[in-house]
User: Which sequence fits this backbone?
C-alpha cells in the first residue's frame, strides 16, 4: 500500500505565505502525477495545481501567479508554496497522486487545514 502524509497547514494573515508538503511512502515504483486539491466549507473539492513526472505544471486560474507546485522525486514529495494568501484560499488542502505500486493507484492524503484571516 501507499500512504501520504501532509504537513504545513495553519493559520496565516491575508498576504502571508505557507508551504505545504506531502510525502508518499510504501511500495512505490513510480509516481506519475502529483497534485493539490482543496475543499472550502460548503463547496466542492477543486483542483489547485498539478505537476507531472516530467515537471509540467497546471494551475487553477484563481491561484496562478501566487502558488507554485514542485516535486522532489528522490523524496517522493510534492510541495505547494502559497504566497499572497487571501481569505478565499481558506480550505482543507488535499494531496493526490497517481502512483504505480503493485498496481496503478490513485491515493489521497488526509488533508491539511489552511485558514487565512482578513
Assistant:
Amino acid at each position: 500500500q501507499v500512504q501520504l502524509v501532509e504537513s504545513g497547514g495553519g493559520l496565516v494573515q491575508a498576504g502571508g505565505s505557507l508551504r505545504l508538503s506531502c510525502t508518499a511512502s510504501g511500495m512505490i515504483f513510480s509516481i506519475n502525477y502529483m497534485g493539490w486539491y482543496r475543499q472550502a466549507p460548503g463547496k466542492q473539492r477543486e483542483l489547485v495545481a498539478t505537476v507531472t513526472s516530467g515537471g509540467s505544471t497546471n494551475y487553477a486560474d484563481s491561484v496562478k501567479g501566487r502558488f507554485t507546485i514542485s516535486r522532489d522525486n528522490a523524496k517522493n514529495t510534492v510541495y505547494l508554496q502559497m504566497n499572497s494568501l487571501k481569505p478565499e484560499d481558506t480550505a482543507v488542502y488535499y494531496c493526490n497522486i497517481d502512483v504505480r505500486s503493485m498496481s496503478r493507484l490513485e491515493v489521497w492524503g488526509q488533508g491539511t487545514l489552511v485558514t487565512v484571516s482578513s
In short: The chain has no helices and eleven strands. Residues 13 and 81 are 15 Å apart (CA to CA).
